[in-house]
Amino acid sequence: MYNKILIPLDGTLRAEQALQLVNRFFVDAELILLETTGNTTQAFPIYGAGVHGYIEPLPEVKKARNDEYVASVADRTRNWATNVRGYSLIGPPDIKIVEVAEAEEVDLIVMVTHGYDRFERLLFGSVTQKVIRDAPCPVLAVRDGELPEHMLIALDGTPFSEEILEPAFKLAKLLRLDVTLARVDMPKDDISYADVASIREIDSELAELVLSTHNSRAEFYLDDIRKRYLDSVAGIDIKIDYDVDYGDPAARLPAIAKFHDCDLIAMATHGRKGIEYWLKGSVTEKVMHKTDVAMLILHHEVEEEPAG
Questions:
Q1: pTM
Q2: Position with higher pLDDT, 232 vs 42
């Protein structure tokens, strides 16, 4: 189970909505509340004769204010949780969140995304996205504190993608979520989209047979996983089904989630950085941009290939 949970705060009621989920399902876990004083401007207006503008409080003033805030939230949380610790740190929020998660060896990070629009994400990114790239444990990013009911687990047939299965089913059992396993995949060494289109121009029935054969293999793969986890949810009212599709995973996964009324998508991310991130991007982050549902994300560091 999830025994130690980190909940990042930023002084807003929106961030505190993560506590609603924790209050309902994680009351026995050790909770760590973290407020960080980063580089964001928390300024006060100033006015005078011919003067107007803003003045930013000193870091130590911010720190004292955040200490007081975290202590207040921790006191309120102790009304329903038995083991709560709260503290504040100075530094970039994403870096401090990851550092605390590593030092405390937490099992899960629960945070509310602020839903920046695409232009803002392009300029500033998102604290949640940055945390996901380096987090040592699964990150549950919820939207507006809404409680999920149906989880979509994204897979592509690789052992890497299957690393999300254990934390996802752990959460599904705890929250009693129905589960849909989804595979969006067209192996390049098997058949390409262009091949299918070319075959369809000559023989539409043959093209459908090719796709059917591919889908049958994918369905067998997902059904095998479904059967593997049925025993783990025995005695709990949880349904497990699956769906197979092909195309761009970043585009198709949100569509599949919407079709099945899933309000949580679980998937593993490669955690690419630097030039590789800009060249290849991240399917997980693209899915985050295209969907409004909660996400459970497990970071997996990509090993650098030796030079030469």
A1: 0.79
A2: 232
